[in-house]
């Protein structure tokens, strides 16, 4: 596995080094939380002879792998920076800070407290592969409000770093407990688009799999990727980065997973319209080789 690069020089999915690069800005809310940067206006008072005056934002690069099509932010945040970005995620302080930079976020907040309706369709898609009441591990499942098979399971385990209260019937588990169980389904939804080292993250989940376990990984199928199928010229079109620092093509997901020795069983593409993602999700069902 490629070493952790804090400014990526290799693809986060296939480890290739043919990356197209284009300048972009890191949105102020993220720049503020991660780096402590505030947008600033460079004025004549600065006395800088060779720089033009105007607004300065945190600069970054959009990178697109020319082998698998993965499109991602060049910065790969450290664990500490990630913790700063997601500290008390969506609590009142977080929301207020974010609304200061992004007034439209106020309309999104109420949606996070409801279960997303499209999950019924994901369950219907998965059901033929699973027992009637599956044993489920939700990796990064937060409260469990959006856990798959929440209403129809033999057990529902949640592995999540946050200490939030869980929905009734769900149980929080650590690595040791995970190793003592046989799961029918391991899920990780709406996580891999946020993390700096997605392959490393999926690798950490592998000990939870037995030969009969299925793993369901879900990410947004972002509009930019969807609207330019197969394009390797997306970097100049991606001018800003926010919480989603990785945009996956189907090929990129496949390459990431196959490098870990996983076999793709099926791929789901589902239109969705909920507060936190509008457009389409891509779900990939895999098992051990
Ligand atoms: Zn790649």
Q: Keywords, please?
A:
single chain; 5-stranded mixed sheet; alpha/beta; 21% helix; Rossmann fold; 8 helices; 7-stranded mixed sheet; binds zinc ion; 289 residues
Using the alpha-carbon principal axes, give the shape. Answer: globular
Spatial order of strands in the largest sheet: 8-7-6-9-10-14-13
Determine and state the CATH class of the domain at 116-226 and 251-288: Alpha Beta
Strand content: 25-35%
Q: Could you describe the largest sheet, including whether it forms a barrel?
A: 7 strands, mixed
**Percent range for helical residues?**
10-25%
CATH architectural grouping of the domain at 116-226 and 251-288: 3-Layer(aba) Sandwich
Helix segment tally: 8
The helix-strand sequence is: EHEEEEHHHEEEHEHEHEEHEE
User: What assembly state would you assign to the polypeptide chains in this entry?
Assistant: single chain
Q: What small-molecule ligands were found? A: zinc ion
The third-level CATH topology of the domain at 116-226 and 251-288 is Rossmann fold
Radius of gyration: 20 Å
How many individual β-strands? 14
Output mean pLDDT. Answer: 93
How far apart the termini lie comes to 19 Å
Q: Low-confidence spans: pLDDT under 50, at least 5 residues?
A: none
Q: Structural class of the secondary elements?
A: alpha/beta
Q: Would you identify the CATH H-level superfamily of the domain at 116-226 and 251-288?
A: Vaccinia Virus protein VP39
